[in-house]
Amino acid sequence: MAGESGAGTSEPIITITPEAHQHLVELRDEEADGASLGLRLAIASAPGEDFRYDLSFEEFLKAAFDDEVRTHDGLKVIIPGADVELLTGATLDHTSTQGLVIRNPNRPQAPDVEGLTGDDQLSAEVEAMIATEVNPALAAHGGFVTYVGHDGEGTAYLTMGGGCHGCSMSKMTMLDGVQTMLVEAIEPIERVKDLTDHTTGENPFYT
What we know:
Elements: E1 15-16, H1 18-29, E2 37-43, E3 53-59, E4 68-72, E5 75-79, H2 84-87, E6 91-95, E7 99-103, H3 121-139, E8 143-150, E9 155-162, H4 170-185, E10 191-194, E11 205-206
Parallel strand pairs: 1-6, 2-5, 9-10
Antiparallel strand pairs: 2-3, 4-5, 6-7, 7-11, 8-9
Helix pairs in contact: 3-4
């Protein structure tokens, strides 16, 4: 079994609160083969989308070679090797109102869009504006935008994540708020294109 040299000897990748641990163990034990099952936690979203997660129970002895398996007080947790970096430091919690929720301090990677420029002086100005003006304004709503690049013809490409992603007002916030800020402050930028798939923006809660 990959990723675990001995039960409980490897450093945990995520933190599981006592409330989440109890809930997960109860769910696992309801399964007929519960003793052989571990919780598989994977990132289901694509680059550039806000994080979405897939949680399921599977036999931990059948974990893939590159999966990382950790033991949390008797509960096996399986994390795909490709998702370890983006899940490191995350916390899995459970509340009576939200069910299971993942709090992840990491941010999704920006999508790779062919033909865009993201490493020139204009990009530096846009990124500075986002860091100092745009994201602080969105932080009150738990949201943020990520700069992807520009097309050399006046269009800046962004994605939106966090609390604003998937919100019914998020697209309007992007177009009417973020675009206005960037266009007024940076002359070469004439418009903003939102690459976010807002249909995927359900809160990452699991009941």
